Structures are given as C-alpha cells and as structure tokens.
Amino acid sequence: MFKRLLNPSLSQSFFLFGPRGTGKTTFLKNFFQNKVTRWIDLLDSTQEDAYAMDPGKLYRELVVLKGKRDHWIVIDEVQKIPRLLDTVHRLIEETSLKFALTGSSARKLKHGSANLLAGRAFMNYLFPLTFFEMGKAFSLSEALTWGTLPGITQFGLDSEKKDFLKAYALTYLKEEVWAEHIIRELDPFRRFLPVAAQTNGAVINYSKIARDVGVDYKTVQSYFSILEDTLLGFFIEPYHRSIRKQQRQAPKFYFFDTGVKRALENTLDIPLKPKTYFFGNSFEHWLITEIFRLNHYTKKDYRLYYLLTKDDAEIDLIVERPGKNNLIIEIKSTDRPDSLDAKKLERFLDDFKDASAIMLCLTEEAQQMGKVLCLPWQDAIKMIFS
User: Residues 235-268: pLDDT tens digits?
Assistant: First the structure.
C-alpha cells in the first residue's frame, strides 16, 4: 500500500476524478476508514440499475440521515448516472451530509450538462503513482518501461506486466469509449489510438493524423478531446505572450502513463536502453507527466507550456509559477550534460525576464553551466515544487 499525496479537504463535498486503475476506490476506503460512510458503487450492475430506474431512491434513502453530522456518502463512478447529481445537490442544501463522488471520466458530466454542484464540491484528481509516493520501491527504468499504475506493481514478470497493460488498453476501449457510446464507430478510433501514441509529446499535426487514420480533421480533434475528457492524457499549449497567436498554434498531447502509451503503440517488446532515442523519449514523457501530477497534488496552479520557434529551436517545458520566477526547462536523458545544450537553452533567457534555466538529467551531482543549472531530475522536481 502506497501513501498517496492527494489529501482532499474534509470541509466540503468533493469530486475525485482519475483514469481507471489509478486507485480511487482504494484511496477513499483508506481515507475514510475512520469516518462513518455509506458506499454506493455504480460499477455494481444491481446498484446501477436500481438508481437508474428510480433516481428518487437516493433522496428517500439519505434524507433520513438529515440530522447526521460529518456523515460521508461515497458514490463511486457517478458519471454512470449523471442525474444523481441533482439529488446530491438537493441533499447538500437540505442536510449536513457530505459526498465524495468518483469518476473515471468527466466527459459525460461535461457534455451532458450534468449538475457539477456549482462550487459546492471541490475538484480532485488521482493519477498513477509518483516517485515521491513509491519511495524506495521506485525504479526509473521500470517507470519508463511499464508506467506507474498501482496495478502494475503487483506483477513480477515482464510478461505479466505486458498482459496487464494490453488488457488495460482494451478495457479503455470497451468500457470508457464503446460502452458509454462516446463514439459511433469504433474502428476509426481504434486506428487512431496507436497513431496518437506514436505522436506523444510532439506538436499535433491534425491533418497528417487524419490522413493516416482515414477520417477528417475535425474528427481527429474530437478524438483528442475524448482522450482528454476520459483522462487518458493532457494537452500542453504553445507559449506565446499573445493569447491570440498562441491559439493559432497546435498543442502537444501527452498520455497520462508511459506504460499505457507504449501498450497503445505496441512497443512494449522494445527494450528501453539508456542513450537511445526510445529511452530519451520515454524519460521526457515520464518527467512531464510527473510535473503535471505534482502540480495538481500541490495545488500550485503552475501553467505548463512548450516553445517551438520558427527556426525549430525548442524549449521542452516552460513553467509559469505565480509569485515566483518562471522556469525554462530542457530534459536530457544523459549522465553527462553537454555545454552546447546548456548554451542553446541559455540563449532563451534574453526573451524571458526574471526566468531561470534548468536542465533535468541523469547526472548525480548539480552542475552550473553558464546561466544554466544542470540538476539530477530528482533534485530538479523538488526544487520546482519547493
């Protein structure tokens, strides 16, 4: 059992969103082990049918607890019956009950005009395990190869981990996309997933992907929105001081887990050897997802961007930190940082006032190269979120 960084406030009801397999149910059972709770599991077909057929049943059952204080109600996978949120809203208004509402997809709630409780419930997200949470159990090579979903840690054999990740990808298709009627045709979306995984971390070329998949441009855009709404990944927008010009450029998309990404693109059999393209690609992917996760857990409200100039000079990550200096970051999977890479990053400092330049790499000791600080990736993450 890993102690998670997430620590929801108990002062108010809350949503807990996260991809399947990130441990939402396990987290809440541990989180509420000393609290009086009632558990409603909408993954249980009997319970789902009962509440879907009679949404008023929830109110009748819970209004009798009107006088109870600090009484928590957990509704697992609430997106299965979005109408229940109207009842939850009413019960929050009329009683002292508090609700923990989990979901592996916010899409049905967002697109179905569901009642998101108008600020009466805080938003929380749970992700695959971070290296902070895993502690001594963390292995960088394992994280890059297989990802850090909690379920992967129970397997010792590579063949078992591979089977787990392939099954996860199929479960996503069957239960998150097809069973929820998110798309009309499954085959084009099935063709899209490996192509999207192969372009992970690159500037999205919607037209090229559309040609590869055999659909139109807007369909590809909708497919990426599905991935984001079902929490399978996130966008990083291009940096520009002008919001209007920023919106003209395409974002990058990162899958939420390195192992799932490799499963979708069918590269789990390719070993990730240090000093290779595949290793470097996976290292950058994992570090950016790690920063994304920690940004949510620490509630820093940092904004993450990338920069690609007209002459193809690139900054892997720009971190805008409210009240602190901004960071421009280069990610290198090397234990010997190159002064040429440092100089390339240093040139950008003239364009960013009060910014610091850091290089995240596999070195064991910090090194100063001109105005660029080269750090072991562990120290860099601690510094970013200090």
Answer: 999 997 654 454 468 999 999 999 999 999 999 9
CATH number, span 300-384: 3.40.1350
Distances in whole angstroms, Cα of residue 57 to Cα of each of 60, 210, 322: 5, 46, 46
pLDDT digits (tens, 9 = 90+) for 130-180: 999 999 999 999 999 999 999 999 999 999 999 999 999 988 887 777 766
Confidence (pLDDT) at 108: 63
- Domain 131-279, CATH among 1.10.8, 1.10.3470, 1.10.10, 1.10.150: 1.10.10
Mean pLDDT of the chain: 90
Question: 3-class secondary structure for the chain?
Answer: CCCCCCCCCCCCEEEEECCCCCCHHHHHHHHCCCCCEEEEECCCHHHHHHHHHCCHHHHHHHHHHCCCCCCEEEEECHHHCCCHHHHHHHHHHHCCCEEEEEECCCHHHHHCCCCCHHHCEEEEECCCCCHHHHHHHCCHHHHHHHCCCHHHHHCCCHHHHHHHHHHHHHHHHHHHHHCCCCCCCHHHHHHHHHHHHHCCCCECCHHHHHHHHCCCHHHHHHHHHHHHHCCCEEEEEECCCCHHHHCCCCCEEEECCHHHHHHHCCCCCCCCCCCCHHHHHHHHHHHHHHHHHHHHHHCCCCEEEEEECCCCCEEEEEEECCCCCEEEEEECCCCCCCHHHHHHHHHHHHHCCCEEEEEEECCCCCEEECCEEEEEHHHHHHHHCC
User: Cα–Cα distance between 327 and 283 in angstroms, integer?
Assistant: 19
- Domain 13-125: top CATH class: alpha beta
In tens, the pLDDT along 293-339 reads: 999 999 999 999 999 888 888 999 999 998 899 999 999 999 999 89
* Boundaries of every domain in the chain: 13-125, 131-279, 300-384
Greater confidence (184 vs 347) lies with 347
